[in-house]
Design goal:
By secondary structure, the chain is an alpha/beta fold. It has eight helices and eight strands; from the N terminus they run αβαβαβααβαβαβαββ.
């Protein structure tokens, strides 16, 4: 199976999976490489009740021990999903540089300090307004902070629309998504094909297949696959379909990272 490069464990505030069980499931699925990317959202609003910060010393100690334990069966990589906020770029940079991460996802989980997964967000904005605001935040975030490898789940906001994306037309936002993709290409950043909700309430991956195709048209080459799994049973979710999506978009390879360096594997 393709390698999963967006996964979570109990080190994430919203995760319950034992890291070793995630690794054992990846071995069972015959993944050759596997990256754990737990959440680090510096400055996440305390009113939501989840800190979204990693005990970084324990994280590295635990994953390094497991990496060594299963070295003959799988290559375990240590990553992080960093929640970006322009006002915290110095803190984010210090965090990324504090450890030897293999892979860093730059994700947007907040819009102006508000988490759109909560009902209040779309209580104030129409679907189109809410999606546009989110995408504009993604663009602002990646322009303010450079020390990441791929842009996480670009149109993630669609997960939280009232119709679960049924009425979402990514062509309505082509101007801003093109800016995101062009900036990524020009700065050597990749994107991910996130399959978390594909077939589980959403009709499309994040980002939409048309956005993935557009990234390739603009010269993008770096694309990772991520299930965004928080439990072993969802590792590699819909990866066969994801491979088809990438091939249809014009990709011959997908990407994995080690020591922040991309490696291209044949689809």
């Amino acid at each position: 199976m393709y390698c999963d490069f967006h996964t979570h464990t109990s080190f994430s505030s919203d995760g319950k999976a034992d890291p070793e069980l995630q690794i054992l499931r990846a071995i069972e699925l015959d993944m050759k490489k596997f990256c754990i990317t737990d959440h680090e959202d510096i400055g996440y609003p305390p009113e939501y009740g989840l800190p979204f910060t990693v005990d970084i010393d324990k994280y590295f100690d635990t994953l390094k021990a497991l990496k060594e334990k299963y070295a003959d069966k799988i290559s375990v990589l240590i990553g992080i999903e960093l929640g970006l906020q322009p006002r915290l770029t110095q803190e984010q940079e210090a965090f990324v540089q504090s450890r030897d991460f293999d892979f860093v996802i730059g994700s947007t989980h907040l819009v102006g300090g508000e988490d759109p997964c909560y009902p209040g967000y779309f209580g104030r904005y129409s679907q189109k307004e809410g999606i546009r605001k989110y995408l504009e935040q993604v663009l602002k975030n990646i322009k303010s902070f450079n020390d990441f490898d791929v842009v996480g789940h670009i149109d993630y906001i669609v997960r939280y629309t009232a119709d679960k994306g049924a009425g979402y037309d990514c062509a309505d936002f082509r101007d801003v998504t093109d800016e995101i993709l062009k900036y990524a290409v020009e700065n050597g950043k990749g994107i991910e094909c996130n399959t978390s909700r594909l077939g589980c309430g959403l009709l499309h991956c994040n980002p939409h297949e048309d956005i993935i195709r557009r990234y390739r048209e603009l010269g993008g080459e770096i694309i990772t696959l991520g299930s965004d799994s928080h439990t072993p049973d969802t590792l590699g979710h819909e990866f066969r379909k994801a491979g088809e999506i990438l091939k249809e978009a014009g990709f011959k390879y997908y990407t994995v990272f080690e020591k922040r360096k991309p490696e291209f594997l044949k689809l």
